[in-house]
Amino acid sequence: MKQAYIEEKTFGKIDFSQDPLVKGEYEYCTFLNCDFSNANLSGFTFLECSFTSCNLSLAKLTKTAFREIKFKDCKMIGLLFEQCNEFGLAFQFDNCFLDHSSFYQTKLKKTSFKNTRLHEVDFTGCDLTSSIFDNCDLYRATFENTVIEKADLLSAYNYTIDPELNRIRKAKFSLAGISGLLAKYDIDIRS
């Protein structure tokens, strides 16, 4: 069955959880206030698309291609990004909720997370080289065997990162966040 090819189209206020998006390749498309919760996006390709004020919570992402995607003001709870097509995988997040999502062993070099909540997100085995966590809440996020080299966590907060279990060379942290690097030592740090 031939897949659809859709280019430069805007989709607004559509509930794709009830009326599924046509499977295919979407290029330079805009999705505004759309509901993809629990939708099956497996095998879809999104190229240079933007998602604004959308709900993608619990969407199925098996072999989904996200290339140069912008997510803004989106609710994206419980997504398994490690199931995505890894070729060209690139996105940025601005003011999103990514709680309980997983990036297990995903290559996310130079990814921008801005004003984003990442509670209990799994970054195990992830490559976050040169990524930016600008004003992000990383409460109970898991970092284990994670490459955080040259990453910027200066304004990130609520993180716990063990320097012995992760590669953090040249990563940037604020003095206020230093306790998140020393948590396992159970020491009293005061300013």
UniProtKB/TrEMBL annotation:
Q: What is the residue range of the signal peptide feature? A: none
Lineage, top-rank taxon, reads Bacteria
InterPro entries under this entry? 5peptide_repeat (IPR001646), PA_immunity-related (IPR052949)
What Pfam families does this protein map onto? Pentapeptide, Pentapeptide_4
Protein name (database record): Uncharacterized protein YjbI with pentapeptide repeats
Q: Which organism is it from?
A: Pedobacter cryoconitis
